[in-house]
Amino acid sequence: MLRRIALPVLLTLTTIGTAASPAFADDGPVIGGKCAGRTKFVTVCRQEPGSPGGSPQQGSSPDTGASKGSSKPAPQLCDVERLDPQPPADDPVWQGHKPGDGAIYTRVCISDVIAGAAGATQIGVPIVPQVFWAAAAPKANVDPEQLAREAVDKMLLTGPSIASPRAAGRYVVGMPMWMWVNQGPTTYGPNSASASLAGVTVTATAKVSSISWDMGDGTSAVVCNGPGTKYQASMGKAPSPDCGHVYDKASTSEAGGKFHGTATATWTVDWTVTAGPGENGQFTQTRQSAFTVDVREVQVLN
Fold first, then answer.
1. pLDDT for res 123
2. Residue 29 Cα distances to 136, 216, 254, angstroms
3. Which residues are registered as beta bridge partners of 102?
4. pLDDT tens digits, 151-187
């Protein structure tokens, strides 16, 4: 049985805001995870993506993508906490049970917060939690894809590490340009990490599947399905076999005298449950790096 009582410890609209996207389940409240610095059990803790690194020619920025498979309806998202200290033994909330025979928990669901926000006239309006007895701590209901995304957060993936074009280089109108990137665990992959919750462990492996190059000159993006081929002097004026571009105008009229482009990497993430019910899936994320290109006309001497 649930009942609502006034407690000395109240949640506010700003406090419950630390919960982020819910995990998926078939029905009922979902519980799991623990936010840093909090004692509450929540479905998902909000996390900022890892700070990308790199040289000025990289300028990486993160972005998330979509996942394969059908979506499930989002359940009621609730914030559950074991009451500490526990109420006195004669408190009616025990419903005839004795202290030590289970415990008293509080629960605030997102519907309570929404209802409170609708009627609130100021920030920080307290939300009175539901209070209930349970023989054991509420069991976590884990969304493995959410765990996979947490594993990806640990990888600290960045945008491409651009080897060519070089920021300090000078290129010529009409000459084939070869684009390629350095391959590292955080810039190209493969990269693997795991995340666990409530007896479920998910291992995710991420690798760049394509890079879309916006060359900054107004032409269509060049999509390369690999890291590109490194140019060798023996190649002469030949075009790149897999990732190239030809500028048909100089960059002298552009800001700073250079074209400003971006390289957007699509990371494909394959994940599998390595401990727990067998399940696997795939989703993509993108990371972007900026670059500049100094392109000049050929100077002909008489």
1. 55
2. 16, 49, 56
3. 100
4. 999 999 999 999 999 999 999 999 999 999 999 999 9
DSSP letter at 255?
Answer: G
Quote the CA–CA distance of 287 and 65 in Å, as a whole number.
10
**Rounded CA gap, 208 and 216, in Å?**
22
- Nearest Cα to 162, choosing from 51, 58, 56? 58
Q: Please give the residue range of the domain that contains residue 20.
A: 3-293
Half-sphere exposure of 146 (CA within 13 A, CB side): 21
Domain annotation covers residue 281: yes
Q: Where are the alpha helices (DSSP H) in the chain?
A: 13-16, 110-119, 144-155
pLDDT tens for 229-253 read: 999 999 999 999 999 999 999 999 9
**Residue of 192, 194, 191 lying closest to 275 (CA atoms):** 194
Question: Do the domain assignments include residue 206?
Answer: yes
Q: Domain count of the chain? A: 1
Mean of the per-residue pLDDT values of the chain: 77
Q: Is 302 inside a domain boundary?
A: no
Domain presence at residue 106? yes
